[in-house]
Amino acid sequence: VKVKIPFGNKHLDAIFSVPEEKSEYGVILTHGAGGDMNFPHLLSLAAYLASHGILCLRFTCKGLNVAYRTKAFKTVVEYLKLSDDYKLSGVFLAGRSMGSRAAASLIRQLSQDDDDDFIQGLICLSYPLHRPKLQSKLRDEDLLSLRCPVLFVSGSADEMCEKQLLEGVASRMKAPKKIHWIDKANHGMAVKGRTTDDIMEEINAQVFSWLRENVELEHK
Could you give all domains of the chain from N- to C-terminal order, each with its CATH number? Predict the structure, then answer.
């Protein structure tokens, strides 16, 4: 289902992937610095989640400024929260690369504003912890302030997220967290000798099992 979400004097293009049965939880998903919501990894994950009973709303925001992207993400969260068509108990924010930075930044902002528990957790696909070859400046401030569950799916050869550095940041995080490493994958999640479909199957299955675990924990 295609929608246009008002955003200032513009609008954000978004698409709902809707499961056959009513979904209690949803995932809001966005792309990295390049591309848009039809990036193949996002399409694959959205279809997988919907086929496993989880609503997925993915959107495009082309801005390269993290504050602007965060603002757009907030607009989409509010849109879904007030939606009469899809009444959800909660959502998980998910993004690829820069999109995951915007999601983390938004959760940090919202946790300072109120105690609303609509946002249940964060999914970071290829979180860009540092610029390539600039490991001394880590983008870890938002991560260290989070309290909700966080899933990282990263390539062990990601030039923007050195394995040891992410594990170090994770060990300092207060939030419940899990890291799933895609062996030998780079920032774009490509692995020599493996097909994109094969890698996406691994990512999709990881994301879904983590979501299911966290929704079940909520209900215990």
Answer: 2-219 (3.40.50.1820)
Length in residues, the chain: 220
The rounded distance, in Å, linking the Cα atoms of 92 and 25 is: 8
- CA end-to-end span of the chain: 33
Instruction: Using DSSP bridges, classify how beta strands 10-17 and 2-7 pair: parallel, antiparallel or unpaired.
Output: antiparallel
Q: What is the pTM of this model?
A: 0.95
Place of tokens 């609303």: 116
| Tens digit of each residue's pLDDT, the chain (220 residues) | 999 999 989 999 999 999 999 889 999 999 999 889 999 999 999 999 999 999 999 999 988 889 999 999 999 999 999 998 898 999 999 999 999 999 999 999 988 766 568 999 999 999 999 999 888 889 999 999 999 999 999 999 999 999 999 999 999 999 999 999 999 999 999 999 999 999 999 999 999 999 999 987 655 4
Of 119, 68, 120, 124, nearest to 95 by C-alpha is 124
